Amino acid sequence: MKFKIEGTEGAARAGAVELPRGSFLTPAFMPVGTQATVKGLSPEELRELGFRVILSNAYHLYLRPGHELVESMGGLHKFMAWDGLALTDSGGYQIFSLKGMIKLTDEGVTFKSHLDGSSHFIRPEDSMAIQRAIGADMVMALDECPPGDSDRIKLEAAVARTAAWLRRCRSVSLKSHQTLIPIIQGGTDREMRRRSADLTLEMDFDAHALGGLSVGEERGAMLDTVEFAAPLLPHDKPRYLMGVGMPSDILDAVERGIDMFDCVLPTRMGRNAAAFTSRGRINLRNAAHARDDSPIDPECDGACCRNFSRAYVRHLFMSGEIMAARITSFHNLAFYARMMALARKAILENRFASFKRDFEAKQNNGGVNE
Amino acid sequence: MKFKIEGTEGAARAGAVELPRGSFLTPAFMPVGTQATVKGLSPEELRELGFRVILSNAYHLYLRPGHELVESMGGLHKFMAWDGLALTDSGGYQIFSLKGMIKLTDEGVTFKSHLDGSSHFIRPEDSMAIQRAIGADMVMALDECPPGDSDRIKLEAAVARTAAWLRRCRSVSLKSHQTLIPIIQGGTDREMRRRSADLTLEMDFDAHALGGLSVGEERGAMLDTVEFAAPLLPHDKPRYLMGVGMPSDILDAVERGIDMFDCVLPTRMGRNAAAFTSRGRINLRNAAHARDDSPIDPECDGACCRNFSRAYVRHLFMSGEIMAARITSFHNLAFYARMMALARKAILENRFASFKRDFEAKQNNGGVNE
Question: What is the pTM for the complete model shown?
Answer without folding.
Answer: 0.97
